[in-house]
Amino acid sequence: MVTLIKGLIKYRLVVLLFMLFILIYGFYSLKKVPIDALPDLTDTQVIIYSEWPGQVPQVIENQLTYPLLSTMLGLPKVKTVRGYSVPNYSLVYVIFEDGTDLYWARSRVLEKLSSVRSQLPSQASVGLGPDATGVGWVYQYALYSEKRSLDELWRLQNFYIRYALLSVPNVSEVASVGGFEKEYRLLIRPEHLAHHGISLEDVARAIRGSNVERGGKYVEINGREFLIRAVGYVREKEEIEQAIVKEVNGIPIRVRDLGRVVETPALRMGTADLNGLGNTVGGIVIMRFGADAYSTIKDVKKKLEEIEKGLPEDVKIVQVYDRSELIERAIKHLWKVLLEESFIVLLVVGLFLLSLGLSLSVVIFLVLSLLGTFILMSHWGVNSNIMSLGGIAIAIGTMVDAGIVLVEAFSRKREEGKELTEAIAEATSEVGRPIFFALLVVALSFVPMLVLKGQAGRLFEPLVLTKTYAMVVASIISVVFFPVLLYYLGRGKVLREEKNPMVSLLIRLYAPIFYLSLRLRHAILLLALLSIPATYVLYKSLGREYMPDLREGSLLYMPVTAPGISLQEVQKLLTLQDRIIKGFPEVESVFGKAGRANTPTDPAPLSMIETTIILKPESQWREGMTHEKLLSELDRALQVPGVVNSWTMPIKGRIDMISTGIRTPLGIKVFGKDIEELSELVLEIESALSGMEGIISLYGERLTGATYMEVIPKRERLSLYGLSFEELTSTVDMLLANTPLSLFLSDRERYSITLGVPLDYRERLESLLLPVGDRLVPLGSVAEIIRKESPMEIKSENGMLVAYLYITPKPGADIEKIKQEGDRKIRERVSLPQGYYYQWSGQFEYWQRAMEDLKIIIPLVILGIVVLVYLSLNRVFETFLVLFTLPSSLLGGFLFMYLFDYKLSVASIAGFLALLGIAAEMGIVMVVYIMMSLERYKGGNFEEALYEGAVKRIRPKSMTMFTVVVGLLPAIYLQGTGSEVISRIALPMLGGVISSFLTALLVIPALYYVWLSRNRVYL
User: Fold this and answer.
1) Minimal CA–CA distance to 567: which of 158, 265, 791, 149?
2) How many beta carbons lie within 10 A of that of residue 292, not counting itself?
3) DSSP H or E run through 709
4) 633-642 burial, b for 16+ CB within 10 Å, e for fewer?
5) Per the CB 3.0–4.6 Å rule, which of 162, 470, 577, 816 could disulfide with 174?
6) What digits encode the pLDDT tens for the residues 109-118?
7) CA pair distance 868, 862, nearest whole angstrom
8) pTM for the structure as a whole
9) How would DSSP label each residue in 735-749?
10) C-alpha angle 357-363-368 in degrees, rounded to nearest 5
11) CA–CA gap between residue 663 and residue 604 (Å, rounded)
12) Are 768 and 752 in contact (CB under 8 A)?
């Protein structure tokens, strides 16, 4: 080691150039690292989106969803397949195992889709959804105009704004919601068809044939080429009416002889509202999977500024959701934490050393360590987000430990009169090895967290990686760069340790406590042993939660209504709710959506409302208003009969929906084979759980609340009219389903041309005349028309039908207790038939998965610490001494959590795992100094040796403890976006570091004294 250090000092110019390289390249990497609020927590999923206009959920389920779902279950690496069957379309979500490449998954789904395509209805269009998820909804806007109609706004959105935004890099899709899409519909009079002996297929063929264009290559005339085009697209709706359907006795029968063409709104899948002002048109920008959210949003806003110049003056694009604001707040808060931590740590170092040069060396060391960490982040594709920067934040105090111990050892050597180079070499060789291993203990104690799977693994992976990067970089820089820094910055006069006021005060405080611990050594050891059961008692007393809620600065209000609600009624309800919400002074803007946007990433039925509420900064809220109080007031104000409220946040809610299918933090899935039975069971479970403590709202899906008019053919009557079953069903389909026949082209715009009957024909289905050949057959003569309730939406998962019970816990409620109490009530009050079962889902599901993984992780962490501590000390007893301090560190962590009323979560468990490494490091520092002192006092009074190693060397140990503690304080007390998660990690570390420091000061000397007395090594 001495030779290595002297070599580094000899070639210090090379080391300085390498420092400069890290400085420049580090700042470049800092700007290059992508930025987001949170890591991408979604599973790898592929969406199969199918459209079949005019069809009801039962038909969609039987002929589209179930064949697709059952086929996709056989794909490799598939974890779950969920299906949604609703009127007119089907969605199948194929969710793959962790780590599966998205584009590999899409290619496998496409292969399987090609093999099953022949088994699906030819009328249905089936394809893959975008390479994005619901979490990719990074930006939303609404169009506002006091003059324009909804169909004009829809046209601007779909044929101008949408196309422009799709050209932005990493934008996968731009979905539209609300407004009116225009279509041209031929309203047929069935009696006219029968009069002329014309079939519906003849009409459809005529419309298609009258709206085509063809090319005929070219002709050459006088040396010029003239391209040939047969112009045939219709330009006006009157041209559709002029199309010839048939010629009878030389007289052409045109479309206008059979009905009339009208402009009418197309089928609407959803509606939208802005600030309670009524129906509006909105757009949703969906980012490509894995893209840089922040840069994508910046590009989108830049593009909007460009295209806004081309909009009519009265049309404004109003931003209603912008994730970049959350990203900026989160990153700003974390950088504030990092800067405050760095400043406080350096202040502590300065107070203990009282040397500008040595303090500056620690500053440079810390800066180089941070920049080196960002270099690794850039090369390994780790984004800057709450979790990755949080990993650096909780590591800062520990990162400087190596520099602190080396500086302190160097100062002591200089106090002894050693020459500069000799002092650096001896100090580094003396403490370098154990400190290097101590930092490795801190780094590697956290690495087993990478074993976490699922959402917890994706959430904590960046935190584990950045903390590990930081510790590894700090370890290397402490050995390679720090000796050169000391060579240049350690030349000044060194203040003797006992003359430092801070150090002398600590020695005066610690010395009597040290002697007292030796005299009361057996009582001290007993108390240390009692810390184990005390820790267990505190552990059992804490509540449980998967993760604390990250305050996004916005809310997602998701009420549900009766399944059969009409579009007009849900629009009234949506406008009323948004007007109430906008009346709260804490609310900046409200954008409500009922039904689904025009994207496969949105499976919402019409009965489900999603309202995005953007909140003002908390500094502008009413005095005394808190997040929980605001949520409670909003919930009370929105109590509407027939509506069940549910509250979450945009990112969190969409992650929950994608991961488990449950849109609330907690829920129950009931599986079975019959829709009617499932509906009854869900309502029974809802009744059983109603009134439970800790729950805001409870809603079991009403699966059969939608109203249907079913046409049931009378098969024996069909033969009397000479009709086949297929003729009847196809005629009903063509007359009532409004199936698109062709496209009406108007410049760059496209509108459907459809077929149907006038409204008064649809209202009296029994009297509807079916044109079959030259006859008219009343529908009521060959079919029975009945009204009944049936599902508006059919859900399935892994081949079984499923129904959901949505549970919204109160903020801070204990999910584990809710689940246990819920299980008890269900067992007592609900009898499940054979073939039916239920399972809890949502956050509880994440918690269970995380706990299973932690059963592997925690033993790995402990084993790794044992091995590394032994390698650093090479002695069994000293290794035992270090490990003996670990239970007391856990006691301090649990005590702080109990005092602050924090629940045990995956975040706090991560803090405890990090704590074990830090506690082991502090124990190693204490033991190393005592070992060195015992070597110097070999054959002398071991009590004096213990005093020298413990009390006289209080400075490096205190500096180590204070830097870690003050480094954690900003992560706990600074409030801002992301503080909810980071504080849960930092608080147990803070309590544990304090208790482990006290243990190291009291227990380690006492144990040493007992061991040395028994072995009489130094007597």
Assistant:
1) 265
2) 18
3) strand 706-713
4) ebbeebeeee
5) 162
6) 999 998 888 8
7) 10
8) 0.82
9) HHS--EEEEEEETTE
10) 125
11) 11
12) no
